[in-house]
Amino acid sequence: MSEKTMEFKTELSQLLHLITHSLYSHREVFLRELISNACDAIDKIRFESLTDTALLDGDNDWKITLSADKEAKTLTVSDNGIGMDEAALIQHLGTIAHSGTKAFLARLQESGAKDNPELIGQFGVGFYSSFMVADRVTVESRMHGKEASCWSSEGTGSFTVSEGTRTTRGTSVTLHLKEDAAEYLEEYRLHSLVKKFSDFVEHPVVMLSTEKDEESGEEKAKEDVLNTRKAIWLRNKSEITTEEYSEFYKHISHDFSDPAEVIHYNAEGAIEFKALLFIPEKKPFDMMMSNEPKAHLNLYVQRVFISNEFENLLPSYLRFVKGVVDAADLPLNVSREILQENPQLDKIRRNLTGRILKTLGEMKLKSYDKYLTFYAEFGPMLKEGLQNDFENREKIADLLLFETTATEAGKMRSLADCVESMKEGQEEIIYLAAEHRGIAESSPFLEGFKADGKEVVFFLDPIDEFVMPQLGEYKGKKFKAANKGDMGDAEALKDEKKKFEGFLGFVKEKLSGVKEVRLSTRLKESPACLVGDEYSMSPHIEAMMRRMGQPVPEMERVLELNPSHPVVEAVKAMYEADKENPKLSESVELLRDLAHVAEGSKVENPAAFATRIAALMARDLNAD
Ligand code: ADP
User: Fold this and answer.
1) Which of the residues 81, 172, 339, 601 has an alpha carbon 20 to 30 A from that of 273?
2) For residue 330, is it within any domain?
3) What is the pLDDT of residues 537-587, one digit of tens each?
């Protein structure tokens, strides 16, 4: 095989530039990333060899070795893991697996992220962090039964692949260190970094060096194990420091920030396992770019890493949680597919879910500000649980926060608080879905509730209107939309109804697309509003779906008129005086248009609406 030169994807070279320049003060993390990768590669081959021992090539003395060559100014991190063939080298190191790289770069640029390690850290820079300390990186790798291959790059525009020289299975990453990175040739420095970042790594991280034999005076090889290798999740909680938890979290998540919450416990009884879970502070990169990523934790069976690809270890709405589960009772050498079906996993999932929801509840209670930050990031994800996790719906609902007529703009409160402060006799939680607080607050639909002193909960996240009503009820109170359904106060309008009968029929006839015209008890100050069926979509959701190109069936709504509003009274008087008056149909249409405008929707014919309003203004101003 001759040497091939290939281009990085454009976004990748931009990203490499950013990584090498912006994360400078954090550059020592390159070692953590390389050791993590080596560790993953060992875990992979170890797992696969459980069912096919031939893959081992007789080498299962798992270890990660570091060797520094002071003359050549190189540092090599080597493993006897699964290895990569040429195709894998090109695929894994030549392209970035993330689909949203471009969007991510745009975001970075926008936030002026010259030095924004947190944001870049969320991207999971992994292998590429090597270029912070090296001006050339060479990767020699070999897979079981394949030829050795070599990948090399200066981290600028291109990389080369060629035949490799490695004779055993595994990967060696050699960093040709930059002038100012000579410190990473020093044993003590490497030792302290391994202690700091990777002490708990399960496989030995070994420093290779030479020393003089005292007797013969000859140089001989020396191996020092740098890490204590104590799986952190197996250790006693009281012995683990916050820093150790943080480093472990960063090791498994590739995040740069500390976790918001650590959950570490042993489950005993019907099912035994140990869990170490982390609730992140911010959304990791894969979640910023898409809502699709699946939930996965690292599953171990008695310290042997099995997989991080089991989706049923956690429900998908908790996919923000990172961590490790070590189960004692699961079978070890079966395929992932068979394990996936194991009923024990179900029990573990329920237990983990309960624990996570409980922790979030405590966080909300005890560290409300921290909870607010969490909620801003992951609240919408939690809400998905209302749909998918029937068993825990009430507990999830306890965790939700909303703006309401009783909160200042931007402040939120829980549904429990709303129920608590209800007046006696109120049987429903009243909500109004709107695009933003401003529209919600000035909505005519609030008028009646305000007059009655009832709190209205604002659903400002588009998902709210879909998922919240599915809850059915909360603490015995049903959900009721302020802008849907009949208010059922027929008695109050008995007298008016008679007076308005003919007029309402006339209005209905004049307006197409209106299902019914009736008198309103919910309006106090506005003349008219449009009301949907109990289970219909709110107009702003309808508009949003249309914008996204979703088919939305035409839904006719009911026009409600406020019988005590002077405009409604005047139009009715006009109708009684002369049904043929051309101004009459114009005014009826205007009433409908006003209802559209007040709820934040578009009027059917904006130009005609504008002309009518202009004519009215002219008349009014001339009269002054
Ligand atoms: P991540 O580890 O987050 O997936 P990296 O950029 O660090 O991202 O690595 C990209 C991919 O390259 C890894 O997912 C893995 O498939 C492969 N890889 C990296 N280092 C090794 C290694 N030492 N042995 C085998 N494969 C590796």
Assistant:
1) 81
2) yes
3) 778 777 777 888 888 877 888 999 999 999 999 999 999 999 999 889 999
Domain coverage including residue 218 = 4-225
Same domain, 524 and 607: yes
Phi, psi at 399, each rounded to 5°: -90, -10
Instruction: Calculate how far, in angstroms, residue 183's C-alpha sits from the geometric centre of ligand 1.
Output: 25
CB-ligand 1 contact for 84 (6 Å cutoff): yes
Which ligand 1 atom lies nearest to the CA of residue 81? Answer: 24
Statement to judge: residues 175 and 48 lie in one domain: yes
Name residues whose C-beta falls within 8 Å of residue 516's C-beta, 6 or more positions apart in sequence: 508, 558, 559
Same-domain check for residues 351 and 250 = yes
Number of domains in the chain: 4
pLDDT tens-place string over residues 265-318 = 999 888 899 999 999 988 766 666 555 666 678 888 877 777 777 778 899 999
Q: Highest mean pLDDT: which of 77-81, 106-110, 538-542?
A: 77-81
Which residues does residue 341 pair with via DSSP β-bridges, in sequence order?
A: none
Q: Is 113 exposed, middle or buried (0-12, 13-18, 19+ CB in 10 A)?
A: middle
CA-CA-CA-CA torsion sign (208, 212, 216, 217): positive
Q: Are residues 284 and 301 in the same domain?
A: yes
Residue labelled with tokens 């912006």: 22
Q: Which two tokens stand for residue 526?
A: 């506005």
For 113, list phi and psi in degrees, rounded to 5: -85, 60
The Cα–Cα gap between 516 and 495 comes to: 19
Q: What is the pLDDT of residues 338-376, one digit of tens each?
A: 777 788 888 999 999 999 999 999 999 999 999 999 999
Q: 225, 242, 271 — which closes off a domain? A: 225
- Look at residue 69 and tell me if it is in a domain: yes
Do 18 and 108 belong together in one domain?
yes
Residue from 92, 150, 254 whose mutation best tests the ligand 1 pocket (most atoms within 8 A of CB): 92
Residue 486 lies in a domain: no
What's the DSSP call for residue 532?
Answer: B
Do 10 and 149 reside in the same domain of the chain? Answer: yes
Whether 463 and 346 share a structural domain: no
Question: In this structure, is residue 50 part of a structural domain?
Answer: yes
